[in-house]
Amino acid sequence: MKDISRRALLKGIFATSVVVGFDMAGRSWVTKASAAETFAELPPLDGTLTTDPAALAAVADDFGHIIHRTPVAVLRPGSVEDVVKVVRFARANNIRVAGRGKGHTAFGQSQAQAGVVIDMTALNQIRSVGPDRAVVDAGVVWRDLLLTTVPLGLTPPVLTDYTRLTVAGTLSVGGVSGRSYVHGAQVDNVLELQVVTGEGELVTCSEAENRSLFEAALAGLGLCAVIVRATIRLIPARERAQTQRFFYPDAPSMLADLRLLIGAERFDHIRGMSVPTPAGFAFFLEGTSFYTSPAELPSNPTAGLHFIPGSQQTEEMTYFEYTDLVVKLIDSLNEAGLGGFPHPWLDLFVPGSKIDDFASRTVAALDPATFLPGSLILFYPFRKSRLTRPMLRTPDEEVFFLFDILRTVPHEAVDSVLAENRRLYEENRDLGGRFYTISAVPLGTHDWQKHFQPFWGKLVSEKRRRDPDNVLGPGPGVFA
Ligand SMILES: Cc1cc2nc3c(=O)[nH]c(=O)nc-3n(C[C@H](O)[C@H](O)[C@H](O)COP(=O)(O)OP(=O)(O)OC[C@H]3O[C@@H](n4cnc5c(N)ncnc54)[C@H](O)[C@@H]3O)c2cc1C
C-alpha cells in the first residue's frame, strides 16, 4: 500500500461525479464534490471515471439479470492510454478491474464488486479495412464492422448469431457459430491483439510475438490482460443467403444429419435447433448457403438426409439480413418486455459420442414452464482440428457439439434452473465434455482449475507474469 497523503491533487474534473482520486482510508473514490485533502492522485484522463449511481447500476447487471455486483467506478476511456493509467492506478491501490463490452454474458462475467469496470464500448473506432483484415478498437460492435465491410464485399469468417456484441467481448470468450465447423471460432481468426496487462503495460501480441500472452488473452475472460485493439481476418462476402430447413422427429435423427453435413461441407452454416411446442419439443436443422451467383448453391442439398418427408422449407435474404436475424429477434423480445427477465443460459460442449443420449435425456426432462417466449435450444457441430486456441476448452473428440439451452425464465424459476445447470454441467463434465464460459453455472475455483486443464499451469504462469497482483478479470471467479 502506498503512502498517498502527500499527493493530493485535483485534475481533469468534468462533473461532480467524475472521479479525481481514491481515498485509501475510506476505500472510496474522491469526486470533485467530495474532494478531501488526502487521496491518491488519479492521473488526468482523456475520458472519464465516474461514480454516478446510474452508471454503477448499469454495469452491476448483465444479460443474465441474475448476478448484481456494484463497482465503485466506471471508466469510459477516451484513449488506450486511459486504460493503461487506470489499470496501473488500480494495481497501486489494490482495486480490481473488469473489461466490459456489451455485458451480454449471463452470470456476472463482466462485473467487478467494489472494483472498476472499464466500459470498452467507448473505444469503438474501425481503424482500417484491407482486403484480408480489419484493425478495430476493442469496443467496436460486430454489426458496425459488418456495415462497413459488407458493402466492400468482405466479412469476418465467423460471426456470432447476435452481432450487437463487442469484438473484444466475444474474443474474450471464443465466439462460435454454425460456420465454426469449417472456420473455427472467432478467436481462431485473429491475427494480432493489442492488450493492456495487469501490470499496466501496453503489449502487442500474435502467434509470432508474445505468443503466450496472445493465447492467454483469446477466450481469456480478461484474466491476464484487457484487449484494446484487434486485427481480424476478413474473407470475401457473398451477396445472398439461402437457408434450407428440415424437420425431425427427435434429437438423434437430427444429429445424424448434422454429422453427415459436417463431412459433406455442403452448406456454409449449419446448426440444429429445438423449440417447445404444445406437442412437445420440435427438432429441426438449418443449412445456409452464401452465394452471389445461383451456380454457387449446392446442386443436391438434400442428398442423404433423413428429415420428415415434405417438411423442407427454404428462405432467401441478403447476406447482411441473414447476419441481422437475431438482432431483429432480440429487438422484438425487448419490445415485448421479455428482455428484463432472467436468462440463465447454459452452453455445453458435448463429445460427439455422447450427445445423442445426453441431449435426448436432457430435453425430455426440461420443464416447458421454464421456457418463456424467445427460449430455444441450439446444436452447433464442431471439428476439433479446426480449433487452435488453448483457452477455448472443448472435448477431446474430433466431432463434438455445442448444446445450448437458452432459456428466458420467470424470476421465481432462477434458483431451480441454476441448480439444473450445475447438475447438467457436472454430468457433461463426467462424460468428457466442457462448458462454454458465457454460461450461467455456479462454479468454484476448483471447477475452473479442472475446466482449463491441461492448460491450467500455463494460464497460472501467464497470470503471474502479466497480472501478478490479480487486478484483472474478477467476474468469473477463476482467481479468487
Ligand atoms: C442474444 C445473444 C446471442 C449470442 N450468440 C452467440 C453466438 O452465436 N456465439 C457465441 O459464441 N456467443 C454468443 N453469445 C454470447 C456472447 O458471445 C458473449 O456473451 C460475449 O461475451 C458477449 O460480448 P459482450 O461484448 O457483451 O462481452 P461482455 O459480456 O461485456 O464481456 C464478456 C467477458 O469478456 C470480458 N471482456 C469484455 N471486454 C473485454 C476486453 N476488452 N478485454 C478483456 N476482457 C474483456 C468481460 O470481463 C467478460 O468476462 C450470445 C449472447 C447473446 C446475449
Strand content: 25-35%
Report strand order across the widest sheet: 18-15-17-16-20-21-19-22
Q: Average pLDDT, to the nearest integer?
A: 93
Say what the CATH topology of the largest domain is.
Answer: Vanillyl-alcohol Oxidase, Chain A, domain 3
Short characterization:
With 480 residues, the protein is α+β, with helices and mostly antiparallel strands. The chain is 25% helix and 25% strand.
Please outline the helices and strands.
Layout: E1 19-23, E2 28-31, E3 40-41, E4 48-50, H1 53-59, E5 73-76, H2 80-92, E6 97-100, E7 116-119, E8 126-129, E9 133-137, H3 142-149, E10 154-155, H4 167-171, H5 180-183, E11 190-197, E12 202-205, H6 211-217, E13 225-233, E14 235-236, E15 240-248, H7 251-264, E16 269-277, E17 280-291, E18 313-318, H8 319-323, H9 325-335, E19 346-351, H10 355-365, E20 376-383, E21 399-406, H11 414-430, E22 434-435, H12 445-452, H13 456-466
Parallel strand pairs: 5-7, 6-7
Antiparallel strand pairs: 1-2, 1-3, 4-5, 8-9, 9-13, 10-14, 11-12, 11-13, 15-17, 15-18, 16-17, 16-20, 19-21, 19-22, 20-21
Bound molecules: flavin-adenine dinucleotide.
The site of flavin-adenine dinucleotide has 36 residues, from strand 6, helix 4, strand 13 and helix 9.
